[in-house]
Amino acid sequence: MSLQKYINRIAQLDQLIRLEATGNPAECAKKLQISKRSLYCLLDELKTDFNCPIKYCKVKRSYVYTQRGAISEIRFKTKP
């Protein structure tokens, strides 16, 4: 998978989580066009590598952040 595709997938998942609109794991994987196993791996990476406070809420039927925030973009910035 290309780096750009991976970054886009992370951004899409971040948006779904912030909107509390992921659905259950099967629905979320379908929205991202990945397998459930890939979704679980991606969530684990976000929790471990990005320190994202993500939990699944059975009431909302969505993954949610337990703290306010978002994943910021990864990009090149020039220095003055």
Descriptive key words:
80 residues, mainly alpha, Arc Repressor Mutant, subunit A, two-stranded antiparallel ribbon, 3 helices, 48% helix
Short description:
This protein has 80 residues and is mainly alpha-helical. The protein has helices at 3-18, 25-32, 36-49; strands at residues 54-57, 62-65.
Residue share in β-strands: 5-15%
Q: Helical content, roughly?
A: 40-55%
Terminal Cα separation, in Å?
A: 33 Å
CATH topology: Arc Repressor Mutant, subunit A
Q: Per CATH, which architecture?
A: Orthogonal Bundle
List the helices and strands in order.
HHHEE
Number of strands: 2
What is the general shape? globular
Radius of gyration: 13 Å
What does this structure look like?
This protein has a single domain (3-65), classed as Winged helix-like DNA-binding domain superfamily/Winged helix DNA-binding domain (Arc Repressor Mutant, subunit A, Orthogonal Bundle), CATH 1.10.10. It contains three helices and two strands. It has helices at 3-18, 25-32, 36-49, and strands at 54-57, 62-65. Strands 1-2 form a two-stranded antiparallel ribbon. Helix 2 (25-32) packs across helix 3 (36-49).
